[in-house]
Amino acid sequence: QVQLVESGGGLVQPGGSLRLSCVASGRIPSLNIMGWYRQSPGEQRELVALITSGGGTNYADSVKGRFTISRDNAKNTVYLQMNNLNAEDTAVYYCNVNSPMQPAYNYWGRGTQVTVSS
């Protein structure tokens, strides 16, 4: 069984910063992709950023230059540093892990709320 536990969400003013963390436990394939997605009320879940086990990254256009994804493979942890936040970043942020070699391997955390408001 794989578990993903997110932390670090909260209320922040526009222009502020937050750092999200996600710890994965259980069987983690050596070749994997960890990522952050977000979902606002009434909207579909969307990709924010992802990082491969080799360190390759990909970002949504809306967060490029403001968000940075990183990982610590020894700790099975992925981070999302979010800077210069704005109201459009308000959402529930979900952690995901999947493996390109195992299509059935795809797990989600329960999410952490990020609210950007003055």
Explained architecture:
This protein is an all-beta fold and 118 residues long. It is 0% helix and 56% strand. It is built from no helices and eleven strands. Strands 2, 4, 5, 6, 9, 10 and 11 form a seven-stranded mixed sheet that branches. Strands 1-3-8-7 form a four-stranded antiparallel sheet, with no helix packed on it. The radius of gyration is 14 Å and the shape is globular. The N and C termini lie far apart (40 Å). The model has no long low-confidence stretch (mean pLDDT 96).
What is this structure, in a nutshell?
The chain has 118 residues and is mainly β.
Give the key terms.
mainly beta; 7-stranded mixed β-sheet; 118 residues
Topology:
Blueprint: E1 3-7, E2 10-12, E3 18-25, E4 33-39, E5 46-52, E6 57-59, E7 67-72, E8 77-82, E9 91-99, E10 102-108, E11 112-116
Parallel strand pairs: 2-11
Antiparallel strand pairs: 1-3, 3-8, 4-5, 4-9, 5-6, 7-8, 9-10, 9-11
Beta content comes to over 45%
Number of strands: 11
Gross morphology is: globular
SSE-based structural type = mainly beta
Any idea what the radius of gyration is?
A: 14 Å
Terminal residue distance: 40 Å
Count of alpha and pi helical runs: 0
Low-confidence stretches: none
Q: What is the N-to-C succession of helices and strands?
A: EEEEEEEEEEE
For the biggest sheet, the summary is: 7 strands, mixed
Overall residue-averaged pLDDT value: 96
Q: Helical content, roughly?
A: under 10%
